From TrEMBL:
Record Pfam families: K-box (PF01486), SRF-TF (PF00319)
Membrane-spanning segments: none
Stated name of the protein: Agamous-like MADS-box protein AGL8 homolog
Region (Disordered): 170-192, 209-247
Assigned keywords, A-Z: DNA-binding, Nucleus, Transcription, Transcription regulation
Domain MADS-box: 1-61
Location (main, coarse): nucleus
Gene, per the UniProt record: FUL2
Length: 247
């Protein structure tokens, strides 16, 4: 048979009441944690035992921020639902609330800076430590992200500079190769010009242009003299001039 329905009433036995409180408190804190994780809700839970001991749970260990948000929401809702006329007394009350809230914020700021910690209890110090640890995690995470982005940017710049350096080195090598190929060609062309140029022979000492030739009657002497002159000129005239004369 299943368990019967438990009647909700105060447990008279002190020991049983304490055991039930401990079990139900653990289950309540567990449920608060589950709903904050599963539903991404901002949860604040406060429980006082019969002896006045405090048990609390808050999302990201920031109970004060949740209470301030609750106060702002409650105040805004009260302002919307208010039907009475604002009086100078209400302004005085609002000023007192804002002043108290400002004092709380200033006190929290000093606590975050490590000042005026003597008035805090062990539980408050633990909550403050959790808040600072959470803040440090976010700060370090952001710092590491910026460092990785900076390193990635420097690596991109280094890669671009290496590519530019490789391109310049390639251009220099191509230029040197072109100069190395061009220099032997110029030397060969210069040598070819020197070899193709000719040196004029010695002056034609025996060639007398415009000199009177012997008469036609002296054929033998003329022919002998002509042959002698051709032989003498052949020794000093270039071949192309000889071909011209013989032709």
């Amino acid at each position: 048979m299943g368990r019967g329905r438990v009647q909700l009433k105060r447990i008279e036995n002190k020991i049983n009441r304490q055991v039930t409180f401990s079990k139900r408190r653990s289950g309540l804190l567990k449920k608060a944690h589950e709903i904050s994780v599963l539903c991404d809700a901002e949860v604040g839970l406060i429980v006082f035992s019969t002896k006045g001991k405090l048990f609390e749970y808050s999302t990201d260990s920031c109970m004060e921020r949740i209470l301030e948000r609750h106060e702002r929401y409650s105040y805004a809702e009260r302002q919307l639902n208010a039907t009475d006329i604002i009086t100078p007394g209400s302004w005085t009350l609002e000023h007192a609330k804002l002043k108290a809230r400002l004092e709380v914020l200033q006190r929290n700021q000093k606590h975050y800076a490590g000042e005026e910690l003597d008035t805090l209890s062990m539980k408050e110090l633990q909550n403050l430590e959790h808040q600072l640890d959470s803040a440090l995690k976010h700060i370090r995470s952001r710092k590491n992200q910026l460092m990785h982005e900076s390193i990635s940017e420097l690596q991109k710049k280094d890669k671009a500079l290496q590519e530019q350096n490789n391109n310049l080195s390639k251009q220099v090598k191509e230029r040197e190769k072109e100069m190395a190929q061009q220099t032997p060609w110029e030397q060969q062309s210069h040598d070819h010009l020197n070899s193709s140029s000719f040196v004029l022979p010695h002056p034609f000492n025996n060639l007398h242009i415009g000199e009177a030739y012997p008469n036609a009657g002296d054929n033998g002497e003329v022919e002998g003299s002509s042959r002698q002159q051709q032989q003498n000129s052949a020794s000093v005239m270039p071949p192309w001039m000889l071909r011209h004369l013989n032709g």
